[in-house]
Amino acid sequence: MDEIGQLLERYWPHIVLVVSILASLATAVHAAMTKQDVRAAIGWVAVVILSPLLGATFYLFAGINRVRRARVTQQRRLAQPGRESIDRLEVKHLGQAFDDHIKPLKRLGNEVNKNVVLRGNQIEMLVGGDQTYPAMLEAIATARTSIALQSYIFDHDGIGIRIAQALIDAQQRGVKVRVLIDSVGAKYSRPPITRMLQDAGIAVGRFLPTAIGLRLVYANMRSHRKLLVVDGDLALTGGMNIREGFMREFAGDDVAVDTHFKVSGPVARHLMESFAHDWEFTTGERLEGEAWFASIPTESVVQGVPIRVVLSGPDRAIGRNQSMLLGALSVARNHVRIQSPYFLPEPVLIGALVTAARRGVQVDIVIPANNNLKLVSAAMEAQLDLLLHGGVHVWRANGAFDHSKLMTVDDQWCYVGSSNVDPRSQRLNFELDIEVFDHELARALAKSIDNKINHAKRATLAELANRPFWVRLRNRFIWLASPLL
Q1: At the N or C end, where does the chain have fewer CB atoms within 10 A?
Q2: Cβ neighbours of 366 (radius 10 Å)
Q3: E.C. number, please (predicted)?
Q4: Which residues lie below 8 Å from residue 141, measured CB to CB, with a gap of 6+?
């Protein structure tokens, strides 16, 4: 042992050097062979070469995607009675109500998604917490068999406590209740709302907990999905977290804005399957039976809005959002409207936006003038010139901070839900969106976005150029970290 100690004492610098070289080589090879984005591969290889041991250690925790592909992002066909009959409600042809150039979007969605477009649905837009939270409370109060609630953030505050108590009351009258919250989002308030729910006997799951153990490797992956399904046939989904800052009763004139959607019909089945899949991965419990999956008399379903559920995540489902957005931009002929609080499109999406604008499509992007995330706002500004040079219109909306994530194309096609237009939503978050073919909703969204534009300030190249040099330099350095913001 003394000899070994002496050897270590004498040659430890050489041992460290060899270990560093081997760790760097192994990490660089892994990054080069597994990263699909060349920028990510180059970045990680540079990190591990410039800082061998530290870079390799950081890559071990933040660079390797360990999400269990078969269980998280691959949507399994749950063995539930009626699934086959629901899928028979697929919209085969959109019909004459939609222009021919819009119709290929349905085929694109079929190629990149597991879910088909279903007919026979109803959808209602809910603006802000003043409309959304009362609708949630009403749905919970009228639940007969089951309630499935999923949220990124569920704060322990005025509205959070109100919704939690409604869930507790529902369980006490015999309704089955399950609540799934992202482990990062659960920490936004103290004490967490999970304690109140669990003390009342409600089953609560935390998606990818990272506080202890090896699950620290999942710290950069989050479930950003927002979903409430009641009795398997009514759902609310969109961009709304559960926070009192979005309700005028609590926030007063500082109230923030968001947009949510109340959906009923066959598509509620696919939304419930999304929750059941995430719940089983998180807790091991499989939800099944008519308590969770309502029977729908498919023979009577004729009218209604065609809707598709789009699930995306950081593994097998990676790229779904981007494919949907690129497809929509490629077919647009007249007008594209996008509203997003965190707008950091990747180069391929910037190229698609600019190309659409240059071929004569009016492309309007609405972002907040006053963002709640200052670093994201700085990174957003750092790349606006790329859009403005290409003829894209970018508008900074004044007034209350708006957290809505909305897109419409030619007043016929809508894409709404939890996804932002940024690298995190495209590559790191588990997101839930819906694709809607509906003139009425598209016109309502267009009117809402246009109203924002009417009270917004248009960004210009001259304005960006007149920023002090240190501000532009700061923004560019923050922009370099945009994949992690």
Answers
A1: N
A2: 25
A3: 2.7.8.-
A4: 166, 169, 170
pLDDT at 123: 97
Token code pair at residue 258: 């968001």
Contact between 455 and 365 under an 8 Å Cβ cutoff? The reply is no
- Give the three-class secondary structure for 309: strand
pLDDT tens digits for 321-378?
999 999 999 999 999 999 999 999 999 999 999 999 999 999 999 999 999 889 999 9
Strand partners, 182: 207
AA letter at 328: A
Residue with token string 């509620």: 268
Helix residue ranges, H only, 252-296: 267-283
Report the C-alpha gap between 259 and 416 in whole angstroms: 9
Tokens of 252: 């007063």
Query: How far from 342 is each of 146, 372, 448, CA to CA, in Å?
Result: 34, 10, 18
Cross-strand bridge partners of residue 249: none
Q: Which residue type occupies 96?
A: Q
Domain formed by 83-311, architecture = 2-Layer Sandwich (3.30)
Cα-based distances in Å from 374 to 345, 405, 485: 17, 18, 10
User: At 72, is the secondary structure helix, strand, or coil?
Assistant: coil
CB 274 within 8 A of CB 287: no
Report helix angle 2-34 to 52-62, nearest 10: 60
Q: Which residues pair with 409 in a beta bridge?
A: 336, 413
Closest CA to 201 of 235, 175, 224: 175
Which fold, 320-484?
Endonuclease; Chain A (3.30.870)
The rounded Cα 280 to chain-centroid distance in angstroms is 20
d(CA 242, CA 131): 13
Domain limits, the chain: 8-60, 83-311, 320-484
Nearest to 265 by CA among 119, 439, 78, 138: 119
CB neighbours (10 Å) of residue 11?
A: 12
